[in-house]
């Protein structure tokens, strides 16, 4: 286990890490735009990147749903990509009519647990508006759809657990910009039992649970903790620093997604202030905090440099 991973485990378990774990990631479109200039920046910040991009120069080698065009996934959902190097969006839903769900079947095992594996999968299958109507009207088909998706996910989790991972990583965006898409009561009725069963299976097998989830999720963070999440990766802009402090500090380790909605438009000095405020309010000597930044092609190189400098500066705030 590397020192960085050891610090992540220590921070997760509140065992006084030597420094706050930090990371920075780039969309493929960011590499395609800045190319060697971005690689030079990465080389200047080995503490941030931990040799993750050593020797990398495949700036135009963009595949999967990040490639411009149309893609169809294992469930029959159609993804459309209009900006090469950025993520696609589901525009074709294989079960647009509710009665079609009576014949819903899962794909063959082996597709894994991609981003959007549970709640978002329901919206991918039905379309967002139709899925919201399902939750509002609560037809029998909604329960059937949830059961089919959950059963598939449990099979994929069992396959992953057979390899005895220390941690399993999940990603499912549960919130919108300022609210949950369904009420907390509906979430607890239909979705919390799913995450409890999936994450509980991981914890029972001795694996920690990491969950990425975009959007406003403050009302259900205690529920996610109850479901077994060990490290939560929320967005600061959608939840607010004060809200995250009140709901999360001392209760669950956060891999905080720094404000990527700020990065394209601010100054380097504002980035420094942002990172310092996060560390001052969410950090603690015993741990409970990781920091991560994701940069799209709209973030200026000077701001990417400022992000790296701030991460390096404040990772040792409690040393």
List the helices and strands and how they pair.
Blueprint: H1 3-12, E1 22-26, H2 28-34, H3 36-44, H4 46-49, E2 69-72, E3 78-81, E4 89-92, H5 119-126, H6 128-137, H7 140-161, E5 167-171, H8 184-190, H9 192-204, E6 208-212, H10 221-227, E7 231-233, H11 236-239, H12 241-248, E8 253-257, H13 268-282, E9 289-295, H14 301-314
Parallel strand pairs: 1-9, 5-6, 6-7, 7-8, 8-9
Antiparallel strand pairs: 2-3, 3-4
Give a structural overview:
The chain is of the alpha/beta class and about 325 residues long. Helices cover about 45% and strands about 15% of the residues. It is built from 14 helices and nine strands. The protein has a six-stranded parallel β-sheet with strand order 1-9-8-7-6-5. Strands 2-3-4 form a three-stranded antiparallel β-sheet, with no helix packed on it. Strand 8, helix 13 and strand 9 form a beta-alpha-beta unit. It starts with a helix and ends in a 5-residue tail after the last helix. The model has no long low-confidence stretch (mean pLDDT about 95).
